[in-house]
Write a structure and sequence with these properties.
Elements (H helix, E strand, L loop, with lengths): L7 E5 L6 E5 L7 H9 L8 E5 L5 H6 L6 E6 L2 H13 L6 E5 L5 H4 L5 E6 L15 H7 L6 H11 E11 L4 H10 L2 E10 L8 E8 L6 E2 L3 E2 L9 H7 L7
Parallel strand pairs: 3-4, 3-6, 4-5, 6-7, 8-10, 8-11
Antiparallel strand pairs: 1-2, 7-9, 8-9
Length: 249
């Protein structure tokens, strides 16, 4: 039995009936984490996967439903790290998933460089000094680049990945120019991209991007993904993706 703090609850992840420990006082997983887990290329059996900014472990746990590869996660916030470790234990995934309490900016000194097949990241979306910073420290760190920038993430990803290894990233379309510029700066050639729209008549509010280390130029644009119908229900495609019946490969 896994201990829960007074402000914690058990929720179900949408894939394979996994459980996750969450709390209203820290940042919880949302649709972007689910889409990232269904967008990332994964080796079926052998291999190494690293999830940066892993939070309470949602992406790492969902990735484990699609691969037998070893999965690691890096999280700087001790509270979220502890929740992720307990969620891994709760789902009996200790042999596959390892969570590290780590500043990702120091990852190159700790982990084996050029050894990972896949890196995933659902990072803070906002530069440190833009928008209104949340007074809740956990929310502020999750939303703003207080402890890592987009460039930090891409630099570390490039260092960890094998040649032809892949980075899968979810972000905001407003940062797309920055993302593509930095991907090429760090030799992570953009290979796949999918824009996610809340409704068919609304501008995209998420973008999923894959970069391949030392890949050849050949960017494939996937069909746009529409999240909700006019009646505020998941679209049929979103239901299939959300519940593990379809990926975004």
């Amino acid at each position: 039995m896994v201990h829960l703090a007074d402000d914690e609850r058990l929720d179900f992840l949408p894939l394979n009936h996994l459980k996750i420990i969450q709390s209203q006082t820290v940042f919880s997983f949302s649709m972007d984490a689910v889409l990232l887990a269904q967008f990332a290329y994964l080796p079926l059996k052998k291999g190494k996967v690293m999830d940066l900014c892993t939070g309470n472990g949602a992406v790492a746990l969902m990735l484990s439903t699609r691969t037998q590869a070893a999965i690691e996660g890096i999280e700087i916030q001790e509270r979220l790290y502890d929740m992720a470790v307990r969620s891994v234990r709760l789902n009996h995934k200790e042999k596959q998933i390892t969570i590290h309490h780590q500043d990702l900016r120091e990852a190159q000194a700790r982990f084996e460089l050029g050894s990972y097949d896949v890196v995933t990241c659902n990072p803070p979306y906002l530069p440190a000094h833009t928008g209104q910073t949340n007074v809740n420290e956990h929310y502020a760190i999750a939303r703003h680049e207080l402890y890592c920038t987009l460039e930090d993430i891409l630099s570390v990803s490039a260092a960890l990945l094998k040649p032809k290894g892949r980075l899968a990233l979810v972000h905001r379309p407003s940062r797309l120019a920055d993302i593509l510029t930095l991907l090429r700066r760090y030799r992570l050639e953009p290979k796949r991209m999918c824009l996610v729209h809340p409704k068919a008549d609304k501008p995209a509010n998420m973008v999923l991007v894959e970069g391949m280390k030392d890949g050849q130029p050949d960017l494939r644009l996937l069909p746009p993904l529409i999240a909700y119908t006019a009646d505020n229900e998941y679209t049929p495609q979103m239901k299939r993706i959300y519940f593990g019946e379809e990926t975004l490969l």
